[in-house]
Amino acid sequence: MMNRLNFRAVLLATTMSLAGLAAQAETLRMAMGYDPVSLDPIATSDNGSIWTQLLIYDTLVRPDATGEKLEPGLAESWTVSDDGLTIGFKLRDAKFSDGTPVTPQDVQFSIERAASEDSGWGRFYRPITSFEIPNDHEIVMHLAEPFTPAFNNLALFAAAILPKAEVEAKGQAFFDAPIGSGPFVLKKWTRGSALELTKNPYYWQAGKPAVDDAVLEVVTEPSARAIKLEAGEVDVALDPPLNQIKDLQSKPGVVIGEVIPYRADFVQLNTRYAPLGDEKVRQALNYAIDKDALIKGVLYGAGKPAASAMPVMAYADPDLKPYPHDLAKAKELLAEAGYPDGFEAEMLVDSGIATQRNTAIALQAMLSQVGVRVKIQMLESGTQWETTKAGNYQMSLSYTTSDTIDPDQIIGFVAVNPERANAYHTEWKSDRLNDLYAQERQTVNGPERGAMFQDMIRILHDGAPYIYLYHPATVWAQKDYVKGFSVLPTSNFRLEDVTIEK
Amino acid sequence: MFQVILKRLLMLVPVLIGITLIGFLLLQVMPGDPASRAMGTRASPEELEAMRRLWGLDQPVWVQYLYFLRDCVTGSFGVSIFHKLPVIDLVAARLPFTLGIVLYSTLIALLVALPFAIMAALNRGNPVDSAIRQVFVVLIAMPPFWLCYVLILWLALGLGWFPTGGVGDGFAANVYRLFLPSLVVGLSTAALIQQSLRSALIDTMKADYVDTARAKGLNGRAVFLRHILPNSLISTISIIGVRVSWIIGGTVVVEKIFSVPGLGSLLIDAIVSRDLPVIRGLTVFFAIMVVIVNLITDICYALADPRVRLE
Questions:
Q1: Topology with regard to the membrane (chain B) (predicted)?
Q2: B265 neighbourhood in chain A, CB within 8 Å
């Protein structure tokens, strides 16, 4: 009898301590607005997929928390030769989540895959023409000609390091249950609803991640994300509606975080359209905009005025100031250009985004003060994109974002003509800027290359093929017991340092 | 009966061929292409070309159409450009939630509408009738997105009885979690049903055969249940049929607010990203569902009213 009682007591005690242990398993729950579509890094370009991939996979190098330089990832250290043609990496002792070591062969396979025909990002990696593997911990990459952005591109999600043997054996099915060397492993994926991640027991940063599980809930409606946080169903809500931030802030236990990511908002000006072909007219439009009012009224204060179409990133010139709000100057410039009474223009606006609609209405009012009568044309985003691409527009409210910390990618897009998009379809062209762009790509990272970027951005600022607006902040709302969470300037987030301190 | 169903299902074939053709051609004239949607600001013209080649979008239109027909026949309905999965798999993952809302909301609608329609019809013209009518007019006029937030703020945030959204694992969890979204959809269905059923009941009550039944000596209850109610249900069945066809693809707003991964939001997301195979596949799938729902509606007519013959 005694024995049985004892047994029961032991059983009870065990159950209780197990329950205690289980209670300590910490889960971080987040609500995000994007629904990831695929975990194949070379085939995706949507935020949901990219952010999730960066939690599961590692890259050789990665942007540091400030976003201004790169820090070691899977590579412990690296060397770049003086001519820029050879990049050598020393790999750390890292393991994939199935326990197998990360080898230089995996690195070569992943980068070659990213450069392949099937990759959406091939252009970024094709300059790397050959690989050399001197031993189990080193890999050397060779370039046929200098291409400075190549190193930065290795920090991009598309260059995530995958286990060669697994991907080759499973093909596309690998990405349904992917294996990476990052802090988390995919546990369960309910498409359109949630991704459940659990910590990678083999992660190379000892003792991290601090939370055991992370759940990324897909909540596409911004108000619903804010409500979920308030109801305590999630610990972090990304991008709550801007007009609810003040209200959220006043709730007990809720903290608002804010980071300016690599993004710039602007109005594209089609320089083939008569009044907009004149630099003075374009500058006048820039002087006519009260950026502080826009930020206060439309962004509820969450943003900074923009001096150009470039996000503020590495090599940014702190002395370059945005166009001031100066109506007299704007009118004077318009008169000089032969439009003392202004003119009429049509502006394309994405109908699906509240902020864009509100900005457009404010711009319309501001420009009317200098006699420019703007007609707003609301379009679905895909249609807006096609219309501007075809050159069939006068003004179009738009923005650009950067995935890498190096300005090369974005300047090639917004300022260089022809290159990729004819200066984002403004058809504006500066030969001097084009020359600098070609030079920059062959100049080793350093102050000299930085000066080239500063020159290019200044030329872009003066030429004004856009009305420069603002750099909107990425905002998140979180519970105060979540420590160490932040959104990076590249818009993604890392969770290995996040702790829950209830 | 069986033959009729078979005949109806065979009629699906020409309907579907028509739908595939219209759906396909409409997408051809829709501006926007998936390659530039996917690559956004990053790609060069050559890369966009390469993307299109990869996805078979560089093929002549009629070749693309034939591929699409083949995919419909083999049952995959095409492969999503972005998800890299057969459309049928994407549909299968979301169909349970959509069907859940369809059945659940219809059940709620009937539970709400039937008693009040009967009560209103029996009290025709007196204050009970007009009170009920006013409540249901308000129900009809309430925009669903507004009702969603009112219910969330009141029942989920305020009283904490329900989660604010999302779906769960298994049947029981979803009966609980899908209640609020189904209630929103169900209440607007209920408002439609209540009004038409009330007037149908009043009309039927005046019919001669009802007088005959009373004259035979049947009591009021039997007359109502056996004669008046079944004969008045035709309009209710029509409304439910139309609503169900609509709910299958049309509850995007409710799905988005309650974070339910249903077919409506799949379609909207596919349109925004220009995932052409998904848009096409869903168009055909919705068409099949509409035909099937119509068939079920017709069968229900025959069950409710023996005078209706399915021919």
A1: Multi-pass membrane protein
A2: 192, 220
Minimum-distance CB partner of A382 among B45, B258, B272: B272
- Please report, in angstroms and rounded to a whole number, the separation of the first and last CA atoms in chain B: 8
Mutation target to probe the B interface, by most B beta carbons within 10 A, among A29, A30, A44, A45 is A45
List the domain boundaries for chain A. Answer: 58-163, 184-259+475-500, 263-472
CA torsion, ordered B296, B298, B304, B310, to nearest 10 deg: -120
Average confidence (pLDDT) over B48-68: 82
Q: Does A223 contact B at CB distance below 8 Å?
A: yes
Fold of A58-163: Dipeptide-binding Protein; domain 1 (3.90.76)
Higher pLDDT, A43 or A175: A175
CA gap B163, A193 in Å, rounded: 14
Residue B299 · residue B251 · CB < 8 Å: no
pLDDT in tens, A297-331: 999 999 999 999 999 998 889 899 999 999 999 99
Q: What is the ipTM for the molecules in this complex?
A: 0.78
The rounded distance, in Å, linking the Cα atoms of A153 and A399 is 22
Q: Which pLDDT tens digit goes with each residue over B23-49?
A: 888 888 877 777 777 766 566 677 777
Task: Verify cis geometry, omega within 30 degrees of 0, for the bond prior to A209.
Answer: yes
Domain at A263-472, CATH from 1.10.10.10, 3.40.50.970, 3.30.365.10, 3.10.105.10: 3.10.105.10
Of A72-86, B148-162, B203-217, the poorest mean pLDDT is in B203-217
What percent of chain A lies above the pLDDT cut of 70?
Answer: 95
Backbone angles phi, psi at A432, to 5 degrees: -60, -45
Which of these CATH numbers, 3.30.43.10, 1.25.40.10, 1.10.3720.10, 3.40.50.150, describes B90-304? 1.10.3720.10
Cβ–Cβ gap B54/A117 under 8 Å:
yes
Interatomic CA distance for residues A448 and A179, integer angstroms:
41
**What's the pLDDT at A13?**
46
Interface mutation vs chain A, best among B259, B265, B274, most A CBs within 10 Å: B259
Across the interface, do A120 and B36 touch by the CB < 8 Å criterion? no
Whether the model pTM is above 0.80: yes
Looking at per-residue confidence, does B173 or A255 come out higher?
A: A255
What mean pLDDT, rounded, does chain A reach? 90
Contacts of B82 in chain A (CB under 8 A): 37-38, 44, 46
Are the Cβ atoms of A420 and B258 closer than 8 angstroms?
A: no
